[in-house]
From TrEMBL:
Pfam families: GTP_cyclohydroI (PF01227). This is GTP cyclohydrolase I. One of its GO terms (cellular component) is cytoplasm. Pathway: Cofactor biosynthesis; 7,8-dihydroneopterin triphosphate biosynthesis; 7,8-dihydroneopterin triphosphate from GTP: step 1/1. Its EC number is 3.5.4.16. The lineage of its organism: unclassified sequences, metagenomes, ecological metagenomes. It is an enzyme of class 3 (hydrolase). GO terms for biological process: tetrahydrobiopterin biosynthetic process; tetrahydrofolate biosynthetic process. InterPro entries: GTP-CH-I_C/QueF, GTP-CH-I_N, GTP_CycHdrlase_I, GTP_CycHdrlase_I_dom. It comes from marine sediment metagenome. Keywords: Hydrolase.
Length: 207
């Protein structure tokens, strides 16, 4: 968190970003004033600055390319004829709903059948969190992770499941507090073989 704070501080002092930061801060000040809040109060005096910094940290568009997350892979040899699975459960992530600019959060579950190469396990976590960055929808995150493993790792089969709670449903609209959205994306052998898909779901603790 300390390092992240230093990065944000450097960004807002950078001439390229300073104007954007001031515009965001001014916009927040204007919105709070329109809604009748006293910006001189102890609790709100620094709120426009905090919100502007949060936007820089969480929402600013970056040039992250998901395939770069998988740039380092390891040779597993010829796996032709084998359907061995690699599975990782409970990958925590958070993102921001692009419809209401409110956060949602949950877990991702990944299983894939390697062809010749595998990726370091930490990269699966990084891949999910990179896909979740910025304004998003859960369906896109899920499919982008699956597409990346399918295309850039050349996995023979991919299964990605995400489950998330959406605050846009909690604080507005139906005000649902216990509902979760579940999304899946299936590629290759995972789509073709019900037996393999069932094994993957069992390994992930989803069956």
């Amino acid at each position: 968190m300390l390092e992240e704070g230093k990065v944000i501080e450097a960004q807002i002092k950078n001439e390229q970003f300073a104007d954007s930061y001031e515009k965001i801060k001014s916009s927040v000040q204007g919105q709070l004033t329109i809604m009748g809040y006293d910006l001189a109060s102890d609790g709100l005096v620094d709120t426009p600055d905090r919100v502007a910094r949060m936007f820089f940290s969480e929402l600013f568009v970056t040039d992250i390319d998901l395939k770069d997350v998988l740039s380092v892979t390891f040779d597993e040899g010829d796996r032709e004829g084998t359907d061995d699975l690699v599975a990782m459960s409970n990958i925590k992530f958070s993102s921001w709903c692009e419809h209401h600019m409110l956060p949602f959060w949950g877990e991702a579950f990944i299983a894939y059948v390697p062809r010749e190469r595998v990726v370091g396990i930490s990269k699966l976590v990084r891949l999910v969190r990179a896909a979740a960055r910025g304004l998003n929808i859960q369906e896109r995150i899920t499919h982008n992770v699956a597409d990346c493993l399918d295309e850039y790792l050349s996995a023979k089969g991919v299964l990605v499941v995400t489950r998330a709670v959406h605050s846009c449903m909690i604080v507005r609209g139906v005000k649902g507090f216990s509902e979760q959205l579940t999304v899946s994306a299936v590629k290759g052998l995972m789509k073709d073989s019900g037996t393999l898909r069932s094994e993957a779901l069992s390994l992930l603790g989803l069956a």
